[in-house]
Amino acid sequence: MDGAVIRDRGRHGDRQRDRGSVSVEAAILAPAFIGLMVLAGVAGRTAVAAEAVEAAAHDAARAASISRDAGTAAERAREAAVRQLDWRGLNCTSTPTVDLSGTVNGQATSFAAAFRSPIGQQAAVTVRLSCTVDLSDLRLDTIPGMPNSRRVSASFTSPLDRYRSRALGVAAVDAAPVSKSATGGW
């Protein structure tokens, strides 16, 4: 070993040199661990909120698509969105925004125009739902740039039945009863 002297300090090492090192390690690692836990809480709450908003947008689009007119569809879409968000326990900081739009034969149009499209044409309604989620209870001032809230949005498109009457209204329902023709056929 080239004349090197090796000392074996035994199992305990130099106790004077190691004294207080656990306190220093805890003082350095504890804030980092707390910050990591807060960030995990923010990510978790955002993911749960995004899933709830996605489900609410789906329910709202479906409720709108099975309605026969735009007015009823808009009302049912809003009700379905709020009902789903309540059921999921998501508390938005303000009223969730529900934006409604439509398409006819693949062309963007208004929500009402989708319901006015002739029977047989391909039409769909899209619901875009946005909700602001409160994160202030998770806020940690030592983490720079930490938001107090986060806006979560989702959209869903649901087709209107091609062969179902749309936007008839009460006055337009004067169809003649179905009867057999004189030849005995329908």
The value of Rg in angstroms is 31 Å
Question: What composes the largest sheet?
Answer: 4 strands, antiparallel
Stretches where pLDDT falls below 50 for ≥5 residues? 168-186
One letter per element, helices H and strands E, the order comes to HHHEEHEE
Q: Total number of β-strand segments?
A: 4
Strand order of the largest sheet: 2-1-3-4
Structure, described:
The protein is of the alpha+beta class. The chain has one domain. Helix content is 40%, strand content 18%. It has 4 helices and 4 strands. It has a 4-stranded antiparallel β-sheet with strand order 2-1-3-4. Strand 1 and strand 2 form a beta hairpin. The chain is elongated and about 100 Å long. The C terminus is likely disordered.
Key descriptive features of the protein:
disordered C terminus, four-stranded antiparallel β-sheet, 4 helices, alpha+beta, elongated, 186 residues
Give a concise summary.
This protein has 186 residues and is of the alpha+beta class.
Q: Helix and strand layout, with pairings?
A:
Elements: H1 15-18, H2 21-65, H3 70-88, E1 97-104, E2 107-109, H4 111-116, E3 123-134, E4 149-159
